[in-house]
Design brief:
Layout lengths: L1 H10 L15 E8 L1 H4 L15 E4 L5 E3 L16 H11 L4 E6 L23 H12 L4 E8 L7 H5 L1 H15 L7 E4 L11 H16 L3 E4 L15 H19 L1
Parallel strand pairs: 1-4, 1-5, 2-4, 5-6, 6-7
Antiparallel strand pairs: 2-3
Helix pairs in contact: 3-8, 6-7
């Protein structure tokens, strides 16, 4: 009944009060970073507005509120991404914890904007600096347990794809250093491979670079996108696939914990 009431409030556009938080060690935080397929562009259904009692998100103002889609706010087109389904499955797998999502993905952002001081004009934001600030704010209340990453489409050019491995390695090392955990788990979602889609050499290089970074930077995992389908734009995963992607991120994280 309480979840239904919260859902009705959200549907009516009523601002929810800040959520009550568990102890810091039982509040497991995850940074959601990358570009639009992490932010999510899947169509939102009524079920996506029903809060889970132990899944929260850091809103635009830095408050913890019930996690409902859209989790992100990078662009008006923000919709369903993989983060919420990942968090719900994780919370249900361990009744003792609450999961907190830190949305920081920026639609269209190339890897070059995920560096200190870099501005991404499409979202009028500083992807790396903002992710850092939001995560540090979140860590005042909880414990950072991992990073979910999906990005690379913006770097599928001949020149950018050739330096992708180097720059992605630098970014992940920087994140781990800034957050004080050299073994912070990182989950990298694979670029789209929609039915009928043909990869050019640049996309193949980005894919190979991501796989190599995961191998070199344990604990890390590569999350396949095989069989996932798209919105009509042939760019973004549809809602059904984003929910499935979230499940795959969860399974990959669970394997890392073992």
């Amino acid at each position: 009944m309480k979840s239904l009431f919260l859902a009705l409030l959200l549907a009516a556009g009523i601002l929810l009060p800040a959520a009550e938080l568990p102890s810091k060690e039982k509040f497991h935080l995850f940074l959601l970073a990358g570009q639009s397929n992490m932010a999510g562009r899947g169509a939102i259904a009524p079920e996506d507005k029903v809060p889970h009692p132990r899944v929260l998100m850091l809103d635009r103002s830095g408050n913890w509120v019930p996690a409902v889609d859209p989790v992100h706010f990078d662009k008006p087109s923000a919709g369903i991404g993989p983060g919420r389904r990942f968090a719900i499955l994780l919370a249900e797998s361990d009744p003792s914890i609450t999961v907190g999502l830190i949305p920081a993905a920026c639609g269209g952002s190339p890897l070059s904007t995920w560096t200190p001081g870099a501005l991404w004009q499409q979202t009028e934001s500083h992807p790396y600096d903002d992710a850092l600030a939001r995560t540090r704010k979140a860590m005042e209340s909880g414990t950072l347990k991992g990073i979910l990453w999906h990005q690379g489409e913006a770097d599928c050019s001949n020149s950018l794809s050739r330096t992708y491995h180097k720059h992605l390695t630098e970014l992940f090392r920087r994140f781990r250093s800034e957050f004080g955990n050299p073994e912070l788990p990182i989950l990298v979602g694979q670029l789209s491979q929609f039915p009928g889609e043909k990869w050019n050499d640049s996309k193949k290089r980005v894919d190979a670079a991501q796989r190599k970074v995961v191998e070199e930077m344990a604990p890390a995992a590569f999350v396949t996108s095989e069989g996932l389908t798209s919105n009509p734009d042939r760019v973004h995963f549809d809602a059904k696939s984003q929910r499935e992607f979230g499940r795959r991120y969860f399974e990959a994280y669970r394997k890392l914990l073992r």
